[in-house]
Amino acid sequence: MASPVSTGLATRALPIGQTVRVGTDAEKRAAAEVAAGLVEDGMRVGLGTGSTVAYLLPALARRRLSLRCVATSDRTARAAAELGLAVEPFDGLDRLDIAVDGADQVAPDGWLVKGGGGAHTREKIVAAAADRFVVIVDSTKPVEVLRPPIPVELLPFGLQATLRRLAPVSLRDAPPSSDGGVIADYTGPVASPARLSALLSATPGVVGHGLFDPSLVSDILIGRGEKVERRTVS
Ligand code: 5RP
């Protein structure tokens, strides 16, 4: 059994029924495979972005279900399509049955930091549209307290003024997001995720930020060695 976590969230261990390599890649794959097992035939599925989701896509494709998928980034859309998953534009769907995505940090109360890959604005839209949002991570992602950097996506218009209001913030040496946004990282303190989330959301020029409220999150699957620990959040 996985060790209990110091949180009010329900916790249980899911044996994944196979031997896996020790290390974060094996943990990512194990969590992704459990998540793929939660997807049912006919579902509308949101696909996240990142190296953990890269393990989800083949696991989902192997199940040969009839699915309608929406991708949170061009790279996920391409990888999913190459595996034979039916990816369509999000414009045609008003809600999703399930979305699965990775995270950079997972707090004990279910707050997340996302956006290491710069796709957090789309990822939040997809998570919010899903009846069930499942987060898949390896054992390095749970933290006691969220810490900077917090990814942000900024409108190019008035960028210098937005950066001044947000300071301290650091621009990423990265291409624009799929929607033309500038990706940066807020590097100030994270004393209260709720207050910082409200502040970032209220800052003109901020299109999106990587703090995800626990109310968005249904389950967190954490690969730990050969087991996958499951936290039910909301
Ligand atoms: C991309 C994300 C990713 O889900 C997050 O960065 C985790 O990535 P990985 O699975 O590669 O550790 O938010 O914007």
Characterization of this structure:
The protein has 234 residues and is an alpha/beta fold. The protein folds into 2 domains: 158 residues, Rossmann fold (3-Layer(aba) Sandwich); 60 residues, ACT domain (Alpha-Beta Plaits, 2-Layer Sandwich), CATH 3.30.70. It is built from 6 helices and 14 strands. The strands form 3 sheets. It has a 7-stranded mixed β-sheet. Strands 9-10-8-11 form a 4-stranded antiparallel β-sheet. Strands 5-6-12 form a 3-stranded antiparallel β-sheet, with helices on one face. α1 packs across α2. The longest helix has 13 residues. The structure holds ribulose-5-phosphate. Ribulose-5-phosphate (5RP) binds next to α4.
CATH topology title of the largest domain = Rossmann fold
* Mean pLDDT reading: 91
Q: Give the termini separation.
A: 23 Å
Order of helices and strands: EHEHEHEEEHEEHEEHEEEE
What class do helices, strands and sheet pairing give? alpha/beta
Share of helix among residues?
A: 25-40%
Strand order of the largest sheet: 1-14-13-7-4-2-3
Identify the CATH class of the largest domain. Answer: Alpha Beta
Q: How would a textbook summarize the main sheet?
A: 7 strands, mixed
Contiguous low-pLDDT stretches (5 residues minimum) are 1-21
The domain count comes to 2
User: How many alpha or pi helices?
Assistant: 6
Architecture of the largest domain in CATH?
3-Layer(aba) Sandwich
Please provide the count of β strands. Answer: 14
Give the amount of beta strand, in percent. 25-35%
Overall 3D shape: globular
What keywords describe this structure?
25% helix; alpha/beta; four-stranded antiparallel β-sheet; seven-stranded mixed β-sheet; binds ribulose-5-phosphate; Alpha-Beta Plaits; Rossmann fold; globular; disordered N terminus; 234 residues
